Structure formats: C-alpha cells, structure tokens
C-alpha cells in the first residue's frame, strides 16, 4: 500500500530531540507512540505488527523493561504495570503504562519527576480505561482526577517542559481489547460516544492549564482504514503519522524550522493488515 503524508525523518527526529528527556504516559496506544519514537530515533523503519501487539517484553529495539511486564505477572487488570526506557548517547525516552489519570501509582510517577530528572517533553493520554473500568458514572470522577493530575504536573515541572495532551483516537463500532473484561461488555455500545465526551472535557481542561492539546481524534477521523481489526489499535502507518504530528508540534513550540517534504512510502505488513479490515 502506498500513502502520501508529511512525515519526520530519522535524521530530523535525532536532531530535534538531541539531549532531550521524553516521557510517554498512558495505555497501549501510548506504548505504540513510545515504540515508534524509539524506533525512529535509531533507523528509518516502521514498526511491525508483532512489535505493536507485544507488551511487557524484556527488550524492544535496544530499550529495556525497567519494571512490571514480563518481570512480573502478565495480566489485563487495572494494576498492570510496565515501565520501559530507551537511552542513547543523546536521547532518553521513558514509558509508563497507566490505567487511570490520577491514582496512587500516578502520584508515585510524579514524585519521581519531583525528586529526579525533569522531562523536557511529556506526552500523555489516559481515557479508555478511566471511563470503562472503574465507575459507571465516570464523568465527575474523570474530571476531578484530570484536575488533580494537571495541577500537580503544573506544580512539579518547570515552565520550559513541553506537555502534550493527546486526545483519544476514534474507536470502532465493534471493539475488543485487553481492557474489555467480561464484566464491562455492556459498556461497549456507548463507549465510542463516551470517548468523544471525555475528549471534550480533557481537552478543554488541558487547554485551561496551558498544556498543548493534540487532537488525534480529529486527525484520524478520515483515516479509519488504518485502525486494526480490534477497533481500538492502529497500524504502523498511523503510528508514524502520530510521531510526525508530535515532532512537528514540538518543533513549532521550540521555534525550530522542520521542513517535512511529502514522501510516499510502502509498508508490506500494513498492506497485509488492510486486506482484513
């Protein structure tokens, strides 16, 4: 399959993020964001289907599993943990898997930032687990937890830290995934609309705290052919587009001119995925 899009090259990513500490927080989609960034910082290549599907592995493209995942018991519960890190001579990228935007675990992550190295960039999203796995009437709880998270983040991190809140991407009509345990199957029918509502709340609140908001729901509304058959996750082309959007956004925030020529590229595994969509 051929697709034309504006993309950031390996060399541009390396230069833009030189000597930067990037933190990615969120669910399996955000894990894909982390993985694609780690890959692009090393080579001009795209994630394979297996790399996108795998979780908790000991190592991915020269990174290491720091905590949780296969170091612990693998499961689909809200207490699942996975902390990954990639480090080169000039780049540090870390991923934390979270299932709730503000919790005891999130407080411990924020405490790491308070006591240790401050990230230059934080890329964060937490929504689908928040609104499906905890409370039936999720709206007030989600809003309150977002406020606590944004408030603490604002207090802990310096003004120069670029914080990007990713809005949740469109869900399919029929969805399946690790977060959909049997007891919440009844929520599936309205989860798509709940995500839209949650995006409105989170995006508005993030903006009021001065965070940067990247509306991935809007960006991918006409790219649904890149969503995988589970109705939740996205293929390698989509993830490279997300990475490019994030890096273009970062460059703009830092006043860096980042020429992004339109390039046409092929990805055989994505072609194979498309045939079953």
From TrEMBL:
Family annotation (SUPFAM superfamilies)? SGNH hydrolase (SSF52266)
Name the domain of life: Eukaryota
The record's family statement is: Belongs to the PC-esterase family.
**Record protein name field:** PC-esterase domain-containing protein 1A
Species whose genome carries this gene: Larimichthys crocea (Large yellow croaker)
């Amino acid at each position: 399959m051929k697709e034309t899009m504006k993309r950031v090259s390996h060399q541009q990513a390396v230069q833009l993020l030189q000597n930067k500490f990037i933190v990615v927080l969120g669910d399996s989609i955000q894990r894909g964001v982390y993985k694609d960034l780690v890959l692009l910082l090393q080579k001009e290549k795209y994630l394979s289907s297996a790399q996108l599907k795998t979780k908790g592995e000991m190592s991915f493209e020269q990174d290491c599993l720091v905590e949780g995942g296969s170091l612990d018991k693998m499961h689909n519960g809200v207490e699942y943990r996975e902390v990954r890190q990639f480090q080169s001579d000039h780049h540090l990228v870390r991923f934390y898997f979270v299932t709730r935007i503000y919790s005891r675990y999130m407080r411990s992550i924020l405490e790491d930032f308070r006591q240790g190295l401050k990230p230059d960039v934080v890329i964060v999203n937490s929504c689908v687990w928040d609104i499906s796995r905890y409370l039936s009437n999720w709206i007030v709880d989600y809003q309150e937890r977002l406020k606590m998270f944004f408030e603490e983040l604002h207090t802990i991190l310096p003004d120069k830290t670029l914080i990007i809140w990713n809005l949740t991407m469109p869900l399919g009509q029929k969805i399946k995934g690790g977060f959909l345990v049997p007891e919440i199957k009844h929520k599936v029918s309205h989860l798509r609309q709940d995500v839209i509502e949650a995006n409105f709340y989170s995006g508005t609140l993030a903006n009021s705290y001065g965070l940067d908001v990247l509306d991935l729901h809007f960006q991918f509304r006409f790219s649904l052919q890149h969503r995988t058959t589970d109705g939740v996750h996205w293929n390698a082309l989509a993830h490279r587009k997300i990475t490019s959007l994030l890096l273009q956004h970062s460059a703009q925030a830092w006043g860096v001119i980042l020429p992004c020529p339109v390039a046409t590229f092929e990805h055989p595994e994505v072609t194979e995925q498309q045939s079953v969509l």
